[in-house]
Design goal:
The complex is a heterodimer of chains A (about 325) and B (about 375). Helix content of chain A is about 35%, strand content about 20%. Chain A is α/β, with parallel strands linked by helices and about 325 residues long. The longest helix of chain A is centred in the first third of the chain and has 15 residues, at about 5-20. Chain B has about 375 residues and is α/β, with parallel strands linked by helices. Chain B has helices at about 45-70, 85-95, 110-115, 120-125, 160-175, 190-205, 235-240, 250-265, 300-305, 305-315, 325-345, 365-375; strands at about 100-105, 180-185, 210-215, 215-220, 220, 240-245, 270-275. In chain B, a hairpin with a 2-residue loop joins strand 4 and strand 5 (about 220). The complex binds thiamine diphosphate and magnesium ion.
Chain lengths: ~325, ~375
C-alpha cells in the first residue's frame, strides 16, 4: 500500500497498463511533454516516448475520431479530453460512431477505448470548466460511464475500464483530484465495473451519490447522525450500467432515498435512479425519494458554491426525508 | 514563402520557435530594425494616432500586470493575459471602423478597452461582481459589451470563428457596410470551426477578417503540432480566402494588414485570413508554468522584439517620446488603475436570484421553483456574497 492522491493513482494505473499492454496509447492536448494540465499523465512521455503518449492538435473531434481508427486497427487508445466541458466537439464521433460501432456492424467491429476527462465544479472554473455531463452520455446506448470518488477506486476502475470490451467514459472529479488521498494497493488489481460500494452504513436514509459529492454526503451524514438520523451512503462508482441491486437493497433497508449529483436536476441520472427505485422497491418506500442537485442553469462562476449540492443542502433534505 | 519541408515525420518537434520566422521575407513588416518605417507599407498614421496607440498598448500591459498580481494575491481567481501580443491586439482593434464588430477569443481585453469598455467594467468582470456585464457568471476575462460592439468571450476554442462569419454574412445580406473581425489562436486553427469558418466565408464571400494570433504555443503544444504547413495564412488559399502574414509585434504592420482586409471586405471582395506572428511572453494563464515545456532562451530572444519597446524606440527616434513622457504616462495609468480597481473591488457579488435569470427570456415554472428553494434554504460558505 502507498499513500496516493487521485492524480497519482490514475497515473499509476496508466503506467502499469502501458507496461503490461503495448497496444495502450495515450493521446490528447498537452498530455505529452508537460504531462497534462492536471499532471495526470506526468512522466509517461519520458517513459514511453512520443508514439505512445501523443500531444495532438487542438481538436477533440480529431482526437476521438482518430482514436476510433486506432481502436479499429487493434490499439487500445486512452484519449484525454482536457475538461469534460470541451468534449462536445467530439460528441458526434462519440455518440454517432463510437457508441454504435459494435451494434451497427453486427458485432464485426467492436470499438473500445477509455476517454478520460475531468468533471465537476468547485474550482472556480465557471461555465466551461465545471460541468458534469454524465447523463448526456448515459442516454446514448453503448457507452459505459465511470466516476470514482477516491484514489484506490480510481486506479482499480481505470484498469478495469481499459480491459473492458466496451467504450468507457472515465470522469475524474477534479475538485478532489488532490484532496482524495488514501491508501492505494501497489501493483495490478481491478475494481469491477458495475459495482457500487456502501461507504457508510446506516439504517435510516439511503444517499446515492458519486464523485466529489461523496464527501459532501459524508459531511451531511455526520451532521445528521448528531441529530439521530443514520445515513447509508452508496457510492455508485460506475454510473452506467448502474448497480441497481445495491441501490434497491439499501432502499429496502432504510425505506428512504436521497440522490445527490452536481449535474442539473432535470433529466439527470438522479431522475432515472428515482424511477428505478419506484419500479423495483415502491412498497418499501416510507417517503418520496428526493433529489439534491445542481440547478437547471448553466454553471455559474461567482455563485458556484450556491449552485453545488453541498452538505448544507443535503442535510435538510436528509432530515426532512427522515421525518416524513 | 519558404518551401514546406517534406521531411517532417510524425515525431517532428522543432527545437525552438525563432524570431527569425517573424522576419522572413513573405511577412508584411513596416518598422525597420532602425525604427524607421518602410514607405511602401506605411499605413500613414498621424502623430496623435501613434501616440494614442502607444498609450493603449502600455495601458494594456499595465492592466495585465496588475491582473496577474491580483491573482497571485488571491483577490481574483484567474487571469489570462496578453504579454507580448499588445501590438496585434491593439493594432487590429484600432483598424476597425465604428460600425464594425469584434468577436473576441479570451486574450484581447486590450482590444475591448480600446473600443471603449470602461476599465472599471473590466475589473468588475475579473471579480465576477454585481457590476460585471456578464453578471459574474463567467470566469475572469470572459467579458462582453454590446454597446461597444464586442461579442461575448467563450472558453471553447474556435467557436467564435463561424459566428463572426455568420454575423458578417448577415450584414451583407442586409446590404449594411459592416465588417466582423474575429480573434483566435494558432491552436484554434485545428478546430473544426476554423475550417468551417474559412469555408463558409470563402463560399459566401463574407466581409470577415479572421485574425490568427500565432503566438507560438497552445498551452504546452507548439505550432508544429497544429499544422504541417508553413504557417497559417497559407491555409486561406485552399478555401479561396485571401491570406496575409504580418509581423504581429509591429504595430504598423498589424494596422496595415487589418485596414487592407477591412477595406477589401467593405468593397465586397470577401474575407481575409490575417496571420499575426507574435509570441506569448507569459505562461498560458495564471494557472500555467511554462518552464515545464518551453525551451530556454526562446523568451529572451522574443523579448528583443517586444512590441512596446519597438514602438517606443520608433517614437524616440521620431523625437516624439522621452523619459519624462514615459514617467508621466505610467503615473497617469497607475492612478487610473488604482481608482477603477478600488471602485470594482468594493462591489458585492451578484444577487442569489440572478443565477436563474437569462437562462430563458422568462424563467419557466421549474426555475422559479428552484429559485424559491435556494432563497429559502441555508447559505453556502465560501463565496463573496
Ligand atoms: C474545445 C476546447 N478544447 C480545449 C480547451 C482548453 N484550452 C484552453 S486554451 C487552449 C490553447 C489555445 O491555444 P491557442 O488557440 O493557440 O490560443 P492562445 O491561448 O495561444 O492565445 C486549450 C487547449 C478549450 N478551451 N476548448
Ligand atoms: Mg497560441
Amino acid at each position: 500500500m502507498a499513500q496516493m492522491n487521485m492524480v497519482q493513482a490514475i497515473n499509476d494505473a496508466l503506467r502499469l497498463e502501458m507496461k503490461r499492454d503495448d497496444r495502450v496509447v495515450v493521446l490528447g492536448e498537452d498530455v505529452g511533454k508537460v504531462g497534462g494540465v492536471f499532471r495526470v499523465t506526468a512522466g509517461l512521455y519520458d517513459e514511453f516516448g512520443d508514439e505512445r503518449v501523443i500531444d495532438t492538435p487542438l481538436s477533440e473531434g480529431g482526437i476521438i475520431g482518430t482514436a476510433i481508427g486506432m481502436a479499429l486497427y487493434g490499439l487500445v487508445p486512452v484519449p484525454e479530453i482536457q475538461f469534460a466541458d470541451f468534449i462536445f466537439p467530439a460528441y458526434d464521433q462519440i455518440v454517432s460512431e463510437l457508441a454504435k460501432y459494435r451494434y451497427r456492424s453486427g458485432g464485426e467491429y467492436p470499438c473500445k477505448m477509455v476517454i478520460r476527462t475531468p468533471v465537476g465544479g468547485g474550482i472556480r472554473g465557471g461555465h466551461y470548466h465545471s460541468q458534469s455531463p454524465e447523463a448526456q452520455f448515459i442516454h446514448v446506448a453503448g457507452l459505459k460511464v465511470v466516476c470514482p470518488s477516491n484514489a484506490a477506486d480510481a486506479k482499480g476502475l481505470l484498469l478495469a475500464a481499459i480491459r473492458d470490451p466496451d467504450p468507457v467514459l472515465f470522469f475524474e472529479p477534479k475538485r478532489v483530484y488532490r484532496a482524495a488521498k488514501g491508501e492505494v494497493p501497489e501493483g495490478d488489481y481491478t475494481v469491477p465495473l458495475g459495482q457500487a460500494k456502501v461507504v457508510r452504513p446506516g439504517a435510516d436514509v439511503t444517499i446515492v451519490t458519486w464523485g466529489a459529492m461523496v464527501y459532501e454526503a459524508l459531511d451531511a451524514a455526520n451532521k445528521a447522525s448528531a441529530e439521530g438520523v443514520e445515513c447509508e451512503i452508496v457510492d455508485l462508482r460506475t454510473l452506467w450500467p448502474l448497480d441497481i441491486d445495491s441501490v434497491v437493497a439499501s432502499v429496502k433497508k432504510t425505506g428512504r432515498l436521497v440522490v445527490v449529483h452536481e449535474a442539473p436536476r432535470s433529466c439527470g441520472l438522479g431522475g432515472e435512479i428515482v424511477s428505478l427505485v419506484n419500479e423495483k422497491a415502491f412498497l418499501h418506500l416510507e417517503a418520496p425519494p428526493v433529489r439534491v442537485t445542481g440547478f437547471d442553469t448553466p454553471f455559474p462562476y461567482t455563485l458556484e458554491m450556491e449552485y453545488l449540492p453541498l452538505a448544507h443542502r443535503i442535510l435538510p433534505a436528509v432530515l426532512a426525508t427522515a421525518k416524513y | 514563402m519558404t518551401t514546406v519541408s517534406t521531411d517532417r515525420g510524425p515525431h517532428h518537434r522543432s527545437a525552438e520557435r525563432r524570431p527569425e520566422d517573424a522576419l522572413a521575407a513573405d511577412v508584411l513588416r513596416v518598422m525597420r530594425p532602425d525604427g524607421s518605417l518602410d514607405p511602401a507599407a506605411d499605413p500613414h498614421l498621424s502623430d496623435a494616432e501613434v501616440l494614442a496607440l502607444y498609450r493603449a498598448m502600455v495601458r494594456t500591459r499595465v492592466v495585465d500586470e496588475r491582473a496577474v498580481a491580483l491573482q497571485r494575491q488571491g483577490r481574483i481567481g484567474f487571469h489570462i493575459g496578453s504579454l507580448g501580443e499588445e501590438a496585434t491586439i491593439v493594432g487590429s482593434a484600432f483598424a476597425l471602423r465604428p460600425q464594425d464588430w469584434l468577436f473576441p477569443c479570451y486574450r484581447e481585453f486590450g482590444a475591448a478597452l480600446l473600443r471603449g469598455l470602461p476599465l472599471e467594467r473590466y475589473f468588475d468582470n475579473l471579480f465576477g461582481n454585481a457590476g460585471d456585464l456578464a453578471k459574474g457568471r463567467q470566469m475572469p476575462d470572459h467579458w462582453c459589451d454590446r454597446e461597444h460592439k464586442l461579442g461575448s468571450v467563450s472558453s471553447p476554442i474556435g467557436t467564435q470563428i463561424t459566428q463572426a462569419v455568420g454575423f458578417a454574412w448577415a450584414a451583407r445580406l442586409r446590404r449594411d457596410d459592416v465588417v466582423a473581425l474575429v480573434y483566435f489562436g494558432d491552436g484554434a486553427t485545428s478546430s473544426s470551426d476554423f475550417h468551417n469558418g474559412l469555408n463558409f466565408a470563402g463560399v459566401y464571400r463574407t466581409p470577415t477578417v479572421l485574425l490568427c494570433r500565432n503566438n507560438g504555443w497552445a498551452i504546452s503544444v507548439p505550432t508544429e503540432r497544429q499544422t504541417a504547413s508553413e504557417g497559417f495564412a497559407s491555409k486561406g488559399a485552399a478555401y479561396g480566402v485571401h491570406g496575409v502574414r504580418c509581423d504581429g509585434n509591429d504595430l504598423f504592420a498589424v494596422v496595415r494588414a487589418c485596414r487592407d482586409a477591412i477595406a477589401r471586405a467593405s468593397r465586397g471582395d470577401g474575407p481575409t485570413l490575417v496571420e499575426a506572428l507574435t509570441y506569448r511572453l507569459s505562461g498560458h494563464s495564471t494557472s500555467d508554468d511554462p518552464k515545464a515545456y518551453r525551451p530556454e532562451g526562446e523568451v529572451a530572444r522574443w523579448s528583443e522584439l517586444d512590441p512596446i519597446e519597438r514602438l517606443r524606440a520608433h517614437l524616440v527616434a521620431r523625437g516624439q517620446w522621452g523619459a519624462p513622457a514615459e514617467a508621466a504616462l505610467h503615473a497617469e495609468l497607475a492612478e487610473e488603475v488604482r481608482a477603477s480597481l478600488a471602485a470594482a473591488e468594493k462591489k458585492p457579488a451578484p444577487a442569489l436570484a440572478s443565477m436563474f435569470e437569462d437562462v430563458y427570456a422568462e424563467p419557466p415554472w421549474h426555475l422559479r421553483e428552484q429559485r424559491e428553494a435556494l432563497l429559502a434554504g441555508p447559505r453556502a460558505k465560501g463565496h463573496g456574497g
